[in-house]
Amino acid sequence: MNLSLPQAVDRLSALAQGHRLAVFRLLVKAGPDGLPAGAIAREIGVRPNTLSSHLSILDHAGLIHARRDGRSVIYSADFAAMRGLLGFLMEDCCGGAPEICAPLSGLMPACGAAA
Amino acid sequence: MNLSLPQAVDRLSALAQGHRLAVFRLLVKAGPDGLPAGAIAREIGVRPNTLSSHLSILDHAGLIHARRDGRSVIYSADFAAMRGLLGFLMEDCCGGAPEICAPLSGLMPACGAAA
DNA sequence: TCGATATTTCGGCGATAATCGAAATATGAC
DNA sequence: GTCATATTTCGATTATCGCCGAAATATCGA
Questions:
Q1: Which domain of life does the protein's organism represent (chains A, B) (predicted)?
Q2: pLDDT above 70 covers what percent of chain A?
Q3: pLDDT tens digits for range A2-20
Q4: Of B44, B40, B112, B49, whose CA–CA distance to B81 is shortest?
């Protein structure tokens, strides 16, 4: 299923903020296992309530997923969503010469397949 | 040269707006030859002064380049900048298992090599 | 149940962003 | 030089964003 432009804007907006981008990259680095909200807050250096707002935005954009584990909530990156966004950005690249840029389409094969 | 986080935020912010995203995708589709500002305004359906503001933001973020041709100003996508952004987003993907996501690193080979 | 830890929700404040109309600048044709 | 076309700059208005402190919710252990 292809991304709509408003969906792509939502995802890009979610990433277009320093703290949220840092959070997302941290989760990309962490892989499918993810990290608890508290650890993210400590690592990024942001208050828990502010982080919660950021996580909510990333979640609503579909870029990360939350799952509860005891008192903690574990967040992990959704790699499929990211792949969809990258594909959307490069769609129809170079018009008549797609073979130049098309290699992007089949990228980032599995990588945990989100969560 | 690797991207800094603030630079990446600038690029993502530039793309995180409906009209600007539409403009960028149009220029990606157009390829290295680019399009004059007027044609972009007509295609996207936005007033020339508003478009100019958007183009300025995309240009300042390094995602597009401008060159003058007579009375027109031709804008074209900077594919190298885009490649840099994608690489930044997926840096250190999945931590210990980079071979799963790494294929992203060497992507989008030339595609006009910007301008 | 009570207290401690982990996270989220709420209300408000200051800063930033998107758009507009009007005017200014740049280039080419006559 | 004068006019028309193409694009940009300016100033103002309205809406949205990011942060905070305080309070609420959820889970676990004693």
A1: Bacteria
A2: 82
A3: 899 999 999 999 999 999 9
A4: B112
Q: Which domains does chain B have, with CATH numbers?
A: 5-114 (1.10.10.10)
The distance of A79 to chain B (nearest Cα, Å) reads: 9
Query: Strand D: which residues have Cβ below 7 Å from it?
Result: A 13, 16-20, 46-47, 49-50, 53-54, 57, 68, 70-71; B 36-38, 41, 48-49, 51-53, 55-56, 66, 71-73
The beta strands (E) that lie in B1-115 are given as 35-36, 64-69, 72-77
pLDDT value of residue B77: 94
| Chain B residues with CB-CB distance to A97 below 8 A | 31
pTM: 0.86
Higher pLDDT, A1 or A86: A86
